[in-house]
Design brief:
Blueprint (H helix, E strand, L loop, with lengths): L2 H14 L7 H7 L4 H12 L3 H19 L4 H7 L5 H12 L3 H5 L25 E6 L2 E11 L4 H15 L2 H8 L7 E7 L8 E9 L9 E5 L2 E9 L4 H14 L11 E6 L10 E8 L1
Antiparallel strand pairs: 1-6, 2-4, 2-5, 3-4, 3-7, 6-8, 7-8
Length: about 290
């Protein structure tokens, strides 16, 4: 089963169980994926989280039911997963800009989020520059944090982690320590490493270093792999985010590779991060 079919299978599962108390573990299992990789792929392709999709779809169906039945608001609140009518009304207003009672009276316009169908985009007009690299195991040194993907800690926490480390000038220390083949400071995402709960990830701000490890830093061995290395051109963070989207929506569907490991790298240089000529890289292990 291809990755695109796996994602669509998981979406179909969500649709079939919209009124159930779904867990992200169950949804990712349908895609034969870890929680982290499924959430990451889903959010890159759709620009929303799994929780956002479920909430929007449920409130879309709730609005349709309000318009077409005489069912009580309190009953609809419980049916669509809200503990109280007040919580339901607050969420309903946030999405539709009207209250449930106003929607029933057909006052105002409703926001409808339709069932997702994942389609491959093979544009090809803008070529992606990449290379395939065979690399032996190597060491990265730096600092790390652990995040729970179920709670969205990674999305919120990683940018704050970078801000904190940059304010402490950790980037300067890492650039100074960098003596390995990969030049720059690395954002290293490690999913499913030594955790029973596969929703946990380790995120490192690190650098490729041969030799000793300074006392204030940790070290990790990245296993030998075949990597696809994508060029990223343009200012942060948009250039990096756009390249990730193209990788999943264009490159993987049109190439005979799939991800082979849990470690992904973003490589940052010491150039101006807002420069239109900024050069960065994305490294993904493949098979």
């Amino acid at each position: 089963m291809s990755w695109i079919e796996s994602i669509q299978k998981a979406i179909n599962y969500m649709e079939e169980h919209l009124l159930d108390d779904l867990t992200i573990d169950e949804i990712a299992r349908e895609a034969n994926s870890s929680v982290f990789h499924f959430q990451r792929t889903f959010s890159i392709l759709t620009d929303m989280s799994i929780a956002d999709y479920l909430r929007r779809r449920r409130l879309t169906l709730a609005a349709q039911e309000l318009m077409n039945t005489d069912n009580k608001v309190i009953d609809l609140a419980y049916k669509y997963g809200y503990d109280t009518p007040e919580a339901f009304t607050k969420a309903f207003r946030k999405q539709h800009n009207v209250t449930p009672s106003e929607a029933r009276k057909k006052q105002g316009k409703l926001q409808s989020y339709n069932r997702l169908v994942i389609q491959v985009s093979l544009k090809g007009a803008e070529p992606m520059k990449y290379k395939i690299v065979e690399k032996e195991k190597f060491q990265v040194v730096g600092v790390k944090r652990t995040y729970n993907c179920k709670m969205g800690e990674n999305t919120q926490g990683i940018p704050l982690f970078w801000d904190e480390m940059n304010s402490q000038e950790m980037d300067k220390q890492l650039f100074h320590l960098n003596n390995g083949d990969i030049k720059g400071v690395l954002g290293v995402c490690v999913a499913d490493r030594n955790y029973k709960d596969n929703s946990l990830i380790d995120y490192w701000i690190a650098t490729d270093r041969v030799g000793d490890v300074p006392e204030n830093l940790l070290a990790m061995e990245v296993p030998a792999s075949k990597w696809v290395v994508f060029e990223v051109h343009g200012p942060m963070p948009d250039a990096m985010q756009n390249t990730w989207k193209k990788i999943y929506s264009e490159w993987f569907p049109s190439n005979p590779y799939e991800q082979s490991g849990s470690v992904e790298l973003e490589v940052y240089t010491d150039e101006d991060p807002f420069s239109p000529d900024l050069y960065s890289e994305i490294w993904i292990p493949i098979k």
